[in-house]
Structure formats: C-alpha cells, structure tokens
Amino acid sequence: MRVIAAMSGGVDSAVAAALAVEAGHDVTGVHLALSPDRQQLRSGSRGCCSVEDAHDARRVADALGIPFYVWDLAERFREDVVEDFVAEYAAGRTPNPCLRCNEKIKFSAVLDRAQALGFDAVVTGHHARLAGGELRRSVDAAKDQSYVLGVLTPEQLAGAAFPLGEMTKERVRELAAERGYAVAAKPDSHDICFIPDGDTRGFLARRLGEQPGPVVDALTGETVGTHGGAYGFTVGQRRGLGITTGDQRPRYVLGIEPVSRTVTVGTAEQAEVGEVRTALPTWAGPAPELPFTAEVQLRAHGAAVPCTVSAAGDGGLRIELGSPQRGVAPGQSAVLYAPDPVRGDRVLGQAAVDLAA
C-alpha cells in the first residue's frame, strides 16, 4: 500500500513509520505544522508540534530513507480545534481537543488530502487496534487511546492504520532504541498542545477576558465566593475553587451557567450522576439497535462503567450508568464499548454529553 506516516516527532509515530516501512509499504512521512509560530520551542514534555519536533521527525524519516514533507495545517487547526475549544468553554462545556484534532485534522484534513494524492491510508502512532475494520483498545491499557479515536467513522477507520496497538509502550521504546533513534527516550507529550505552559485558565482568560460572577453552594443556596470567569472551572473540579463554606465538607463543581456566569458547587453526594443525555452519536460501525447494554467511558483517563443505552427522543442517547459517577461534564465524549473477553473491548461509537443528572 501507499501510505502517509503522520510523524509528530515522538517515539510512537517514529516506530509506527518504521514498522510500516518494514512491512513493505510505500511510505511517505508527513509532519503537521499546527502552530502559527514556526520557531516555537518545546518545553520539557509539554505540548508538541515545535520546531524541535519537526527536526526529530525529519531525522527518523532520513534514517528510514523515505520522502518527508511538512504540511501546514495551522489555519485549519486554529479554526477546528483551538477556536472550538474556546467556544466550548465559553458556553460552559468541557471539550476534549485531542478528540477534536483526531476528528477534524488527522482523520479528516490529512486523510482527505492523502487519498486525493493517491495514498491508501494514514499510519499513526496511536495506541489502539484495528481488527476487521473494528476499533479496539490497545493491549497496553495504561496507554490506550481508543477513547480519543471513538469519534472516527467507519470510512475514516478504513483509511487508518495503528501498528502499535498490539504492543506496550515499553516495547515501542525498545524498538526505537534498537533502531538507533534519538527519540527512543523522548518524554511523551502531555497537556494541551496549544497551551504548552499548562495554564488553561490563563489561556482562556486572555482569549475571553474577565467575566466575574458568583459561586453558589447548592447545599445552602448561599453565595460562597466569586470568580473572574466561569470558563476557569469544569464540572467535577474540587481544587482551586476559592470559596468558604460553613462546614468542612469538600465541594465540587456541579454546574456552570455561562449567561449568568454562575458556578454552582456542592457535596460529593450531589456531584454524583446516574444518567447522561447526549447529542447525536457517531458510530464506529453499523448503528446498534436500541436499547442495548455496553460499557461507557466518560473521560480520556477514566474507567469504563456498565451502562444501558436507549434513545433520548431527539436523536441523542440516554445512558443509564451502572454506578454513580462524578465529574461528568457537558461537552465531554461518552465513548461506548462492547466488552469482548476474547478479542478485547470494541468501540461502538461516541456522543457528546449534553446533560448529566
């Protein structure tokens, strides 16, 4: 096959590209320039897409003897990921920018361009498996990235390849070291790539400005503090609330109302939800017949819990949770899995959370 290897400059994408070459595919390496600042420097393991990352990707491509190009998708990334991120927080929701990047950039813009150029697939270093066109969890549960890939359609999955899904991260680093790649010991990137200093609240404040409002305790109805912007909070948050209550029980963010700029907090018991309503779902294969039982993962690093899925009446889903959960925020992705003890957990699809109660 003729394939594009998306090379971020990290160890995962380097090994994925190498495995594609060794499998006999006709491979072209592509680094995505997503930052408008071409000379942005990497800070430790925060962020990605820096000038150093581009150089690291090129060195691996040179070692593999494959063509290498840089595709400028900074404007598309700004519109589809960064602006979406800001708009979601302004509306009181909690988005996942990695999921949006996979949906709009890596498996939409990149795959569309690759196929237009005559390539058959895009190879990435994601830790997930594809088996018979079905998306499944990685064998390395600690590094599994199927959650942020749950938004992909069957057509997008048909044009994707994930060579690392059958191995652990430790093995990936061993393979990189065996091949002499300098990125073998490179730290994994973390946090939000376009906020390399990790200060999400500061980033949003610069974009949205000061928007003061009250913090209200749902237990008593009293105003227990003020804030400079509701966008600085997310449902389920416990630390950094800046409030004073009449008892010693910890408080959690229960809800964010952007129009009145009110942040509502409450006790751990009040923070628990047993049901989730979602927007329209995206299915990774044929749409399952409703209702059905499954497992749902509500956060990128959260545990999956049993659930029952039925129609919500507006095209969305009603997900009844088998056990109460905290920190379920509007805007998060509810990724549904069909447990399979023999072949691994299969992704059924996902939907954005509209309401949790």
Structure summary, number of beta strands: 18
In spatial order, strands of the major sheet run 12-16-15-14-17-18
CATH class descriptor name of the largest domain: Alpha Beta
Low-confidence stretches: none
Quick description:
By secondary structure, this protein is an alpha/beta fold. The chain contains nine helices and 18 strands.
Structure, explained:
There is one protein chain. With 357 residues, this protein is an alpha/beta fold. The protein has three domains: 2-185, HUPs (Rossmann fold); 210-270, Adenine nucleotide alpha hydrolases-like domains (SH3 type barrels); 272-356, Beta Barrel (Elongation Factor Tu (Ef-tu), domain 3), CATH 2.40.30.10. 27% of the residues lie in helices and 28% in strands. The strands form four sheets. A six-stranded antiparallel barrel has the order 12-16-15-14-17-18. Strands 3-2-1-4-7 form a five-stranded parallel β-sheet, with helices on both faces. It has a four-stranded mixed β-sheet with strand order 9-8-11-10. The N and C termini lie far apart (48 Å). ATP binds at residues 6-13, 32, 125.
